[in-house]
């Protein structure tokens, strides 16, 4: 093994000198990583996302309390958000869509989050095509509201204690390029990884080279 490449922390400038001479390795690493990322994004199955917002309304007996049922609705927010991703609800949606799908896997296409301090729940639905995503979002919201209404029904009362009202209809599905991550962040991460791999390859190549006379720059650094 070549002993001219230093192993001590004090020799870091020599590694920097090595990378400056072999800068092409770093560039090749960056280009290779960017090319691999581009190919992966192009061959990745398309994913479309549609978003909607529902409002938790309390038309029943809890609306007569001092805050008009606001605290009751807020307390239900997280529960309803968790309920949105239930495989049981997904099974109902799959049945209404008349498609063949595993409810557990189908539920992974749904995400929901309650806005802190509000009675709003943001819903996101994904799908392989724009049309299927739109249809799924509409059917899901109908079944979701029906389930909540059933759970909040009070015997002897014609109105539930709480119900969901869609305030923002499902948006036009947009294709996700990189899991919702900004494309510039994906490119920057790929370039950084490529640079690290390229630099590592350059150093490894230097270590595996047959032992020879020290390169001028390294010899100059060592004699300082």
| Proportion of strand residues | 5-15%
Indicate the radius of gyration in whole angstroms: 29 Å
- N-to-C terminal Cα separation, in Å? 24 Å
Counting DSSP H or I runs of 4 or more residues, the number of helices is 8
- Low-confidence spans: pLDDT under 50, at least 5 residues? 217-222
Written as H for each helix and E for each strand, in order along the chain, the element string is HHEHHHEEHEEHH
What global shape is seen?
A: elongated
| β-strand number | 5
- Share of residues in helices: 40-55%
Q: What structural category do the secondary elements indicate?
A: alpha+beta
Main sheet: strands, sense, barrel:
5 strands, antiparallel
The pLDDT mean sits at 84
Oligomer: single chain
Which helices and strands appear, and what pairs or packs with what?
Layout: H1 12-21, H2 23-43, E1 48-57, H3 70-83, H4 87-97, H5 103-107, E2 110-114, E3 120-127, H6 130-151, E4 163-168, E5 174-175, H7 183-208, H8 216-222
